[in-house]
Every structure is written in structure tokens, then in C-alpha cells.
Design a protein that fits this description.
2 domains, nine-stranded mixed beta sheet, 249 residues, two-stranded antiparallel sheet, 13 strands
Amino acid sequence: MAQPKPNDRLRLDIVHEDAFVVVANKAPGMVTEPGTSHRDDSLINGLVARYGGKMLRLGERRDYGLLHRLDRQTSGCVACALDPDGYDLIRAQFEARTVSKRYLAVVKGRMRAGAQSIELALEERRVPSDEGSRLVSVPSRTGRPAITDLEVLATSGSHTLVSCEPRTGRLHQIRVHMAHLGFPVAGDPIYAAGARLLPSGKSEERALGLHAWTLGFTHAGGRVDATARPSRKFLELAADAGLAHDALR
């Protein structure tokens, strides 16, 4: 990642802040880090405007503090370190898969109540798209192990609200796993039921029913358990699907 430029015009929703780390509630449609089409309007551009000195001192080797990423249309918790020791300790937890992560997903179809786990190996592939190509995940016997724990929170006639806890961190893991079960995430422009790839189209701006709800880890200052309120778009999508649950309020 090139050194990000500060942008103080971006609105930030900070859900946790201490001397070691900040956790922001990323809005849907906002990219996590600068790229070719988003050089100065990413979440990191906004965070650098607010915490610039601390983040820039971490340098490119530590991704200027960025600890993990979310897809553009996925909202919710993103953690960024403000201290070298904090970065090293928390990043090690991400790599060891000991960070607790829970997502809310609005999926198409009515799932049976209860909890289950899905274990389905995934392989990354690059496929043609309107923008040249895009990276996707597909089920594969030779892929990397991927496990997601699921719990049904609420149902309507056409949709289900699911709590998802990925125990691994593969590309689009929750989206592919839910589609494989026959319950694709609402608004997903890539994966259909059965984890079939949809034709490439310019539908990336649709609301996606996936929200990084909670994030938990430890650092020198103690335990952090951050919770991000679902975005307006997520709440509207859930309401349109006929879902009402205390977790969404």
C-alpha cells in the first residue's frame, strides 16, 4: 500500500479507540484502503486524517496500521493499529485465527432454526469481469480449509437473519458458504444459490446483506470487544425482507 493521503471530508464512525488501536464502523460502499479507482476516499484516508502521525509512522511494512480488510459493500468493524507493538500483537492474532469475529447476514430463503457449522474448502480464482478481471472463491477439494459457524436469529417468509462466525479467513468465505447451502447473501452480485458465479454486471452498488458486527482481540491495554451498529442500508434491506430482530436495533 502506498502512503495514504489524509481526507478529513470523510465521515467516520468510531466504535473503539485507545492508545493502541482504533476500530471503525466502515460504511457500505466505502473501500477499506486506497486503490486505483479510490485513491483518497477509502476508510484509511479518513483514519489518516484523524490519526495521521501515529499511522504514518507505522510505515508500509505494517500497512500503515491496517490489520484486516472488508469487501467494499460489506459494512462493519475494521481495526487499525496506532502503535507498532499493538500492530504486531493484534496482527499475530489475526494470522493465528484467534480474533473473534461475528457477522450478521441477511440471506435469501427460509432456513431452519438452530445452529450448524459448514466446512468447505475454497480456492481463489481470477475470472473475467467488466473491469478486466476479479478475484473470487470457489469450492474446491484442493482448496484451503474454510469453516463457518452459523446460527439462525430470525426468519421471514422469504429471508433469514443469520449470525456467522468464520473460524478461517478466506476470500468471500461467508458469501460462498451461504450460497453453497442454498441461501445466498441478499444483494450479492457474485454468488448465487449453490455458489454459482453470476454473470459479471455493474451491480456492485446494491445493498449487500452482510455486516461485520463484532470484533474481539487483546493487546497490551487489555481486551477489546467492539460492536458496530448495522448501517442504514443493512437495516433497510432487512426490513424489506420482513426481518425484525432486537439485534438490528
